[in-house]
């Protein structure tokens, strides 16, 4: 694998940059297909972050449960996500050596 891309998705309780983040998901891919995946649900108790009532209404209209039961700390979740991306980048670069 010489070049990789990473697609990631954040589920949040708002559209502003200071919204509560519920989950982080990612997948590595290249021209050959999909690679490793990453997913973590975060603890929604994030005092410095905000909840937008319109986003709650949107979630409720989806007919799906809102993923608010995560226990993972937000700092640990993003730290693990960045480690995942860095590790996959290093693996892709050493394949050519």
Task: Throw out a few tags for this protein.
alpha+beta, 3-stranded antiparallel β-sheet
3D architecture notes:
The protein has helices spanning 53-61, 74-94; strands spanning 5-12, 21-30, 33-41. The chain is α+β, with helices and mostly antiparallel strands and 97 residues long. The protein has a 3-stranded antiparallel beta sheet, with helices on one face. β1 and β2 (21-30) form a beta hairpin. The N and C termini lie close together (11 Å). The mean pLDDT is 88.
Span between termini: 11 Å
Order of helices and strands: EEEHH
Total number of beta strands: 3
Question: What is the CA-atom radius of gyration, in angstroms?
Answer: 16 Å
Please give the count of helices: 2
Give helix % range: 25-40%
Low-confidence stretches: none
For the largest beta sheet, what order do the strands appear in spatially?
1-2-3
- Rounded mean pLDDT is 88
Residue fraction in strands: 25-35%
Question: What coarse outline follows from CA principal-axis ratios?
Answer: globular
Q: The biggest beta sheet, please?
A: 3 strands, antiparallel
Class by SSE composition: alpha+beta
Could you give the topology of this structure?
Layout: E1 5-12, E2 21-30, E3 33-41, H1 53-61, H2 74-94
Antiparallel strand pairs: 1-2, 2-3
Quickly describe the structure.
The chain is α+β, with helices and mostly antiparallel strands and 97 residues long. The chain has 2 helices and 3 strands; from the N terminus they run βββαα.
């Amino acid at each position: 694998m010489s070049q990789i891309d990473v697609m990631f998705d954040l589920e949040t309780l708002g559209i502003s940059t200071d919204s509560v983040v519920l989950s982080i998901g990612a997948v590595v891919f290249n021209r050959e297909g999909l690679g490793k995946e990453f997913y973590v649900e975060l603890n929604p108790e994030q005092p410095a972050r905000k909840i937008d009532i319109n986003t709650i209404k949107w979630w409720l209209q989806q007919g799906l449960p809102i993923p608010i039961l995560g226990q993972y700390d937000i700092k640990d979740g993003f730290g693990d996500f960045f480690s995942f991306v860095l590790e996959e980048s290093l693996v892709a670069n050493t394949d050519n050596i």
